[in-house]
Amino acid sequence: MSHRDFLAIPDFSTEELHALFALAERMRTGGYDKKPLAGKSLAMIFMKASTRTRVSFEVGAWQLGGHALFLSPRDVQLGRGEPIADTARVLSRYVDGIMIRTYKHNEVQELAAHATVPVINGLTDLLHPCQILADLLTVRQHLGSVRGRVVAWVGDGNNMANSWINAAWRLGFELRLACPEGYEPNADILARAREKVPVQVVRHPADAVRGAHVVNTDVWASMGQEEEQESRANAFAGYTVDAALMQLAQPDAIFLHCLPAHRGEEVTADVIDGPQSRVWDEAENRLHIQKAIMAVLMGGETV
Ligand code: CP
Ligand code: NVA
Asked: Which CATH number describes the domain made up of 129-283?
């Protein structure tokens, strides 16, 4: 049986991504009332915590006529060492799609290799593709096309940063990332994107943010890096997105953060709670873009 997965942004072509945004926009604005997931189920494996991803996938599946199961390592045998491949084979006999959030990206690839239903990446240590598509939907909503825009990333070269680079590669916009030494994005992802689009890695946040249309940051210690909190706080000193830094961006620049946020660390309260912040729309857009993804991968909707 042929099926397609969504493990990374480049799994969709440029044209498909634009069509996916248009579909998600119809969903966001109430212009879509089909139930392509009627009678279908999504298994959601969470090896890490989640508020937005869990709730938006579960509610989104239900809104499309389907049903979602929340599977934590405490409840499923995967948490007791049952092989990923066996889990993939068994779940494929029950459900019509699998969403997984875990640590190692290759575990998601392994799940996809052995599943006979679509697999969706709900975050790995390497990538967070659903989030960046929601971020791009937010840019589209507030600024129009991302083409010709400059996106600034301030902070860790983490799963979010890597997915922004993949997005720049597919959609063709300028991306500038300010990362401390030793916290740069994935070298292979960076090299591939640089063959096509301007992606700069700089040291000083000001050099990334100056003239940018979108300013984006994330926590300094991601899930699984809790014991590095202190060393990271030292390494990221000076990388806080504050009002002075936002002043360097375009006057109508928007601020994005995937959340959860640590006010006073990577962003000040006046920025994340201020007039340029679009973080609540960004969180809402997880619902719309993931519904579009599920409708296409699991529900036969075409893009
Ligand atoms: N942004 C995001 O993925 O949030 P959760 O960790 O709450 O799912
Ligand atoms: N980089 C963060 C994103 C959380 C949604 C993490 O991986 O914890």
From this structure: 3.40.50.1370
